[in-house]
Write a structure and sequence with these properties.
Blueprint lengths: L4 H31 L2 E6 L2 E6 L6 H11 L2 H12 L5 H8 L8 E2 L8 E2 H13 L6 H12 L27 H17 L6 H11 L12 H15 L4 H11 L8 H13 L7 H10 L17 H14 L7
Antiparallel strand pairs: 1-2, 3-4
Helix pairs in contact: 2-13, 3-13, 5-7, 7-8, 7-9, 9-10, 9-11, 11-12, 11-13
Length: 325
């Protein structure tokens, strides 16, 4: 064929050296941005570089929401900061989508069948509005108790399959079932149904999915939600609570997203943990290095920075780290 082995050999060597150089350069570049806390985003055709703050500034976070949030988000922020209830108009507007069965529709879209996770999100929103004493909450709890499985678990109905739910809401998926059971149980315990047999049955179900070291089977989130529920039922010093928190402390610091930390801190605070507890101090130390210069926090879901920032403000408020406005 006319090919000579020697030139081909040197050509291959040069090509390999070139691509190795490129890969090393890219690796160094990625490490640089990671170390120095920079993130590039495209905004209307322009590249905007975001930088992390050296430490957390709650006032800057509040100002970010006031500047960038919509009217509902701004009102919700003020409810969290002041302890005032949302306006009757706001509550009425929100509760219009509640289904006759007491649950809230999948995706918060009126007319769709009720979803457990969206119903629990509605409870979060009602807590933000300082309206957990509203009669709609009784309807929610009746709905949740009515759909508990005989083994103590909760699982999304197969009817939501038509909406292509995410993996953590997937009917028939065991990891989703464990997570849904943990979060439903957490909320019912938070609403002070601790003595109900249904919660003890749910606890028995969940304990089947606790590994010997204390961490939960399934999603990372299940660990802080499950630990918070068990802390409310069995106390903060229970071996499964300590094990789950120890497992979470072993997660690499760089792996944490602020929206996860906000949820974790709020969950643990709901279960009686305080800013004095070493676990809270540890996760706060990670969050302390995760705020962008504009005051916002990154979310697991793109475009949800305002929501994530509100969640973190709420967690910090519950911990007593933000003075009453």
């Amino acid at each position: 064929m006319g090919w000579r082995l020697e030139p081909m050999f040197f050509w291959i060597i040069r090509s390999v050296n070139y691509w190795l150089t490129e890969i090393i350069f890219l690796g160094i570049a990625m490490s640089f941005f990671k170390v120095f806390g920079k993130k590039e985003e495209k905004e209307e055709g322009e590249v905007v570089t975001k930088k992390l703050r050296p430490s957390l500034d709650t006032n800057l976070a509040i100002e970010f929401v006031r500047k960038n949030g919509n009217q509902e988000q701004k009102e919700r922020l003020e409810c969290i900061l002041t302890g005032k209830k949302a306006s009757d108009e706001r509550l009425t507007s929100f509760l219009e989508i509640q289904n006759p069965d007491g649950g809230f529709p999948y995706g918060f879209q009126k007319g769709r069948p009720s979803s457990i996770m969206d119903t629990l999100l509605a409870l979060v929103r009602l807590e933000d509005y300082n309206a957990l004493d509203h009669e709609s909450v009784d309807r929610i709890t009746r709905f949740l108790f009515s759909i508990q499985n005989s083994d103590g678990s909760w699982e999304e109905s197969a009817i939501i399959e038509q909406f292509n739910p995410p993996s953590w809401m997937k009917p028939g998926d065991l990891k989703a079932r464990v997570l849904t059971t943990a979060y439903t149980s957490f909320w019912l315990a938070k609403l002070n149904y601790l003595d109900r047999d249904e919660l003890h049955e749910a606890m028995d179900f969940l304990m089947r999915f606790v590994h010997p070291d204390g961490h939960f089977y399934g999603f990372l989130h299940t660990n802080w939600i499950g630990a918070s529920f068990l802390a409310m039922m069995l106390g903060k010093d229970h071996w499964a609570v300590r094990g789950a928190l120890s497992y979470l402390r072993d997660v690499p610091v760089d792996s944490w997203v602020p929206s996860q930390l906000g949820w974790l801190l709020w969950s643990l605070t709901s279960a009686g943990f305080s800013a004095r507890d070493p676990e809270i101090k540890y996760f706060l130390s990670i969050l302390n290095r995760k705020q962008w210069e504009d005051g916002s926090f990154e979310s697991e879901d793109k475009g949800m920075e305002v929501e994530t920032t509100i969640e973190i403000i709420k967690a910090l408020k519950f911990l007593g780290l933000i003075e009453k406005a």
